[in-house]
Amino acid sequence: KKLLLLSLAAISAASIQAQPVVQDARFTTTHSTYSGNLVSLVRGGNPPYTYARGQVTGDDLEVTVTDDGNFIAAVPMSYNGDAQFQYTATDSNDNESNPGTITITFRPEKG
User: Fold this and answer.
1) What is d(CA 29, CA 82) in angstroms, rounded to the nearest whole number?
2) What whole-number distance in Å separates Cα of residue 79 and Cα of residue 94?
3) Which of 35, 64, 37 is nearest to 49 (CA)?
4) How far apart are CA 41 and CA 64, in angstroms?
5) Contacts of 53 (CB under 8 A, 6+ apart)
6) The whole model's pTM is what?
7) CA neighbor of 89 nearest in space, from 11, 35, 18
8) Euclidean distance between CA atoms 21 and 99, whole angstroms
9) Residues of the chain whose pLDDT is less than 70?
10) How far separated are the first and last CA of the chain, in Å rounded?
11) What is the predicted pLDDT for the residue at 6?
């Protein structure tokens, strides 16, 4: 009985730690759009992952995140500054990560 309980405890602990973990990241662009991929920012869990956009900070930021982790972020041409969005990753066992934050600094070229 003790061995079985220890085994179940080990399995439960492994399940808790199996949640995907996502990283925050920062990018800079001189354009009004930025495209990237979130795949390299997640570890743990049981791949493959699907990705979802969370909260967007900034009224001018429009963000699309696809299931495979590609994203595109866009602001008006005159925008100059930081914009953020959150994202999550869900693994093949339906374990969802805590949100990660992507910060993009938009610095339009002066022409």
Assistant:
1) 10
2) 37
3) 37
4) 17
5) 63, 64, 65, 71, 85, 86, 87
6) 0.83
7) 18
8) 9
9) 1-17, 111
10) 75
11) 53
pLDDT of residue 111: 59
DSSP readout, 58-96? STT-EEEE-TTSEEEEE--TT--EEEEEEEEEE-TT-PB
Number of H helices and E strands in the chain, helices first, is 1, 9
**Tokens 């066992």 belong to which residue?**
93
Question: For residue 86, which amino acid is it?
Answer: Q
Tell me, what amino acid is at 67?
Answer: D
Beta bridge pairs of residue 23: none
Q: Cα angle vertex 74, ends 27, 25, to 5°?
A: 20
Residue 59: its pLDDT value, please?
Answer: 80
Nearest to 38 by CA among 80, 106, 85: 85
Rg, the chain, Cα only? 18
Cα–Cα distance for residue pair 60/76, rounded to 1 Å: 7
